[in-house]
Amino acid sequence: MVRQHLPACLWRSSSYSAANGGQCVEVQPTEEGCVAVGDSKDRVRGGLVASPVSWSNFIRAMKGSRLESRAVARRGHTAR
């Protein structure tokens, strides 16, 4: 679900994004305890909202590179 009009003061960027001029993915908590994910270059579009469990699973998958492996497998290539 996409949520509009999220408070600008609550967006947080990764510490890894400092070198690219602030153009990155940002996150912020919602009033309901979910996580909103947005684009720092286009905050007008709002943020994609995920449950804490979904967000944790996504982060865990990213850290384990499982998402890249799945995408490669779907395209019919073998992962290196």
Structure overview:
The protein has 80 residues and is of the alpha+beta class. The chain has 2 helices and 5 strands; from the N terminus they run βββββαα. Strands 1-5-4-3-2 form a 5-stranded antiparallel beta sheet. The radius of gyration is 15 Å and the shape is globular.
Keywords, separated by commas or semicolons:
80 residues, alpha+beta, 5-stranded antiparallel beta sheet, globular, 5 strands, single chain, 22% strand, 2 helices
Biggest sheet descriptor: 5 strands, antiparallel
Give the count of helical stretches: 2
Overall geometry: globular
Tell me the helix content.
Answer: 25-40%
Oligomer: single chain
Report Rg.
Answer: 15 Å
Give the uncertain stretches in residue-range form.
none
Q: Structural class per helix/strand content?
A: alpha+beta
Mean pLDDT: 81
Amino- and carboxy-terminal Cα gap: 34 Å
What is the ordering of alpha helices and beta strands?
EEEEEHH
The fraction of residues assigned to DSSP E strands is 15-25%
Total number of β-strand segments? 5
Strand order of the largest sheet: 1-5-4-3-2
